[in-house]
Write a structure and sequence with these properties.
about 200 residues, three-stranded antiparallel β-sheet, five-stranded antiparallel β-sheet, alpha+beta
């Protein structure tokens, strides 16, 4: 998938496939401040004021995880948009990839910046990785100018290429194993018949 240039900077896999069965994508917030600021607000790409907000009580431990349920994804870029504010936008964050949602690899460690002020959209390349991931996590690392610690995101997307469909590979291996087992039984029974 090509990285977008120009106006439509949030047009990656999340926007395209959020309501598809394959690839199935889930947004997993670590917390939510209020139902009004639920994670599905991130999918309202044309509304830069609608946003997800993590719970203040979680502080700078808050995270947003994107889960690719039935495939691996080889990421090249990502886009992020904070909500419409010149004081409470995300200023510093990390972006990581994982196979198991436990052990994460750093893909981008963004220093303090003003890219996301007033719903600005940041577009970033990631450190090249030779392997695909199924989980991607963004975490805010410093408080906002107003010293707010809850993370607010109004748009997020990923770019890159899909690897194999994990579910199909497992089925294929099972199918191959069963076929091989049947084939071995047939060969064995034919060998026994020839001996007699």
């Amino acid at each position: 998938m090509n990285f977008p240039i120009g106006q439509d900077k949030l047009s990656g896999i999340i926007r395209r496939y959020a309501d598809h069965k394959f690839p199935r994508i889930e947004l997993l917030p670590s917390s939510t401040e209020d139902p009004m600021y639920g994670v599905n607000n991130i999918l309202l790409y044309d509304d830069n004021d609608a946003h997800w907000a993590s719970a203040r009580s979680e502080g700078l431990q808050a995270s947003l995880v994107v889960k690719i349920c039935n495939a691996t994804f080889y990421i090249t870029h990502y886009s992020i948009r904070s909500h419409h504010s010149d004081r409470n936008y995300i200023r510093k964050w990390t972006f990581e990839g994982s196979d198991d949602n436990i052990n994460y690899v750093m893909l981008d460690d963004r220093p303090i910046n003003t890219d996301l002020i007033n719903s600005g959209i940041g577009q970033y390349e990631v450190n090249p990785e030779r392997k695909g991931f199924r989980y991607f996590r963004v975490m805010q690392r410093v408080a906002t100018i107003e010293q707010e610690v809850n993370m607010r995101i109004s748009g997020f997307d990923l770019y890159g290429t899909y690897g194999i469909d994990i579910t199909k590979k497992v089925k294929m291996i099972n199918s191959f194993s069963n076929s091989l087992f049947v084939y071995i039984l047939i060969v064995m029974s034919e060998t026994e018949e020839t001996k007699q």
